[in-house]
Specification:
401 residues, alpha/beta, Aspartate Aminotransferase, domain 1, Aspartate Aminotransferase, domain 2, 2 domains, 8-stranded mixed beta sheet, 14 helices
Length: 401
């Protein structure tokens, strides 16, 4: 029997955040202690899912019939999301505008499958979250990155965005607060995204999953644009609500003129095909929106302290410079590889894993064009862990230069 081949599009998928797990597993097998600073999972560290979320989930399993639910998401949760967005961003949407997903990642997949024909283009931040690039590739589209200017605290390069728009551009993505840089865009940036979208007649996709994880400055949502530019806003429960393994997310449409009605229809057809989101977890997600929110204050306090430490300590290490993150769970340091044994940031990261057990994600995994010579580190680990890991990074670099 002949070998059964996989599709080119599936074999072309390459999720850098988990790609580093392979050398990490080899290092651990060889006896290395690992410092896993690669994945933005708060629950792996000292951030605990609030008890009332868990209790609601237990009660939901006992209370509901555990059958299929609404393909668009349970009405009670959608109503809670409508209220949440009104309180957080001062906007008015309806339950018809809201779609519940298995994390933001499912929403990205469904969106790209709806927007794209082969050869269509999507503008994405460079560096940016890899799932956007992967699903654009999977649906045979083309990722067009736009630069975020490191010297200006990762401000998006609006001139480049304009220059890279073509007649194949189907949408423009922004991620705010930003993964992987930790940038938080100011109101002027958000308005300019809206102006460009209006000028070129392009819908805006705004990923705002870290909207309450801001420890320097204020968050400004693209939902608040005074504009009739069609927008899809993405959000979820993995980060702010500390339930990453429960896979709960959502998106909502802001499309006063109905310009994306066909996009809604295409996405809803896919949501029906997947049957429904997890029903008991939706009850817990609803509770997380309606119950006490004080845990977020403590979370931001810890992250602020750890961001300050990471910023100070990493800038003390030879070859490394970094901007101070303002939000999200990450920072994106630059490493000067000129004259070193490492030809690429991936070489640097993989050797660091093998020799010292410190696991970062190579910057080029977030954008080949604008992520090279960088790496992403999480801010989530307690300071003693970060201290030990960064000491090992310094030792590693000094050994090789």
């Amino acid at each position: 029997m002949k070998t059964i081949r996989a599709s080119r599009r599936s074999l072309g998928m390459n999720y850098a955040i988990r790609e580093v797990i392979v050398p990490a597993a080899e290092a651990e097998k060889a006896g290395k202690k690992l410092y896993k600073l690669n994945i933005g999972d708060p629950n792996k560290w000292d951030f605990e899912t609030p008890e009332y979320f868990k209790q609601t989930l237990r009660e939901a399993v006992d209370r509901v019939d555990n059958g299929y639910g609404d393909s668009q998401g349970e009405m009670d949760l959608r109503q809670a999301i409508v209220q949440r967005e009104k309180e957080k961003n001062g906007i008015s949407i309806t339950t018809d505008d809201v779609y519940v997903t298995a994390g933001v990642s499912e929403c990205i997949e469904v969106m790209m499958g709806t927007f794209l024909e082969p050869g269509d283009e999507v503008l994405v931040p460079g560096p940016g979250y890899p799932s956007y690039m992967q699903y654009i590739h999977f649906f045979e589209g083309r990722t067009v990155p736009y630069r975020q200017i490191e010297e200006e605290d990762w401000k998006p390069d609006m001139d480049m965005i304009r220059k890279r728009i073509t007649n194949r551009t189907k949408a423009m993505v922004l991620i705010n607060p930003n993964n992987p840089t930790g940038a938080v865009y100011d109101p002027k940036d958000i308005r300019e995204f809206g102006d460009i979208a209006a000028e070129y007649d392009i819908p805006l996709i705004s990923d705002e999953i870290y909207d309450k994880i801001v420890f320097d400055g204020e968050f400004h949502s693209a939902s608040r644009l005074k504009s009739d530019v069609p927008r899809i806003i993405l959000n979820g429960f993995s980060k702010v609500n500390l339930m990453p393994g429960w896979r709960m997310g959502y998106c909502y449409f802001m499309d006063e003129k109905g310009l994306m009605d066909e996009i809604r229809t295409g996405m809803m057809k896919q949501f029906r095909a997947r049957i429904c989101p997890n029903v008991p977890c939706q009850a817990a997600a609803q509770a997380s929106l309606q119950g006490p929110q004080d845990y977020i204050v403590d979370m931001n306090r810890k992250l602020r302290e750890r961001a300050e430490f990471c910023y100070k300590r990493l800038n003390e290490i030879p070859l490394i410079t970094t901007r101070k993150p303002k939000g999200a769970l990450y920072m994106f340091p630059h490493v000067d590889l000129k004259g070193t044994p490492w030809k690429t940031d991936k070489d640097f990261v993989f050797d660091l894993i093998r020799e010292e057990g410190v696991v970062f994600v190579h910057g080029s995994g977030f954008c080949e064009e604008f992520g090279q010579d960088h790496f992403r580190s999480i801010l989530l680990a307690p300071q003693p862990v970060l201290e030990e890991a960064f000491d090992k990074v310094e030792k590693f670099i000094n050994r090789h230069i």
